[in-house]
Amino acid sequence: MSQQEKSDNQSTFNQENAVNPMGLLFDEECLRKGVEAEDKVGGNIGAGLDWGSAFAGLMGNLELFGRFTTLRISLNREVRLLLNNWNLGTATKIAVITARERILEKFRLPTPEVREYILATLENDQLYGEEFISNREILRELLGVLLKQEDWETIAAVAADSLKKEIIHQAASEKISA
């Protein structure tokens, strides 16, 4: 079989499976690649974020898992709005990214206090029903539980370092002695 024929066959295969992804289940080449990929990671293949064992029970309850997702998105939005209001300039973006990373860490490895607070928030029916949680007071309270003094110090240090690098870069590009 020529290289062109192989390419045409692969293209046809990809087009057919784009329309019918179930065809991938019965394709020997695809199965072989899947087994190889699974072997490379010791059979540990997953999708999405790894929530560890702290919130594993939520994965089986679609309503609670949906609320969990809404809560996480709402907290990310709230911390972005909060930091934007602080007028941090060019350091805002990295401060938001760092804060979101810290929040995600707290969700993945929560202290008993954080886990209890999150579960209580998930059970509060009044908070859910919209795309985001609109009760900013609850979100700010939860941010206070999630992000402690050392977290804010990390966020500040990362933002300050980013701003320092930006100033040095700008000075160098303007040929100003820094």
How far apart, in Å, are the first and last alpha carbons?
64 Å
Arithmetic mean of pLDDT:
83
The count of DSSP E runs of length 2 or more, i.e. the number of strands, is 0
Count of DSSP H/I helices: 8
Order of helices and strands: HHHHHHHH
Overall radius of gyration: 23 Å
Shape: extended
* Percentage beta strand: under 5%
Structural class: mainly alpha
Helix content range: 55-70%
Sheet bearing the most strands, described? none
**Low-confidence region ranges:** none
Spell out the key features of this protein.
about 180 residues, 8 helices, extended
Explain this structure:
- It contains 8 helices and no strands.
- Helix 4 packs across helix 7, helix 5 runs antiparallel to helix 8 and helix 6 packs antiparallel against helix 7.
- The chain has 178 residues and is mainly alpha-helical.
- The mean pLDDT is 83.
- It is 69% helix and 0% strand.
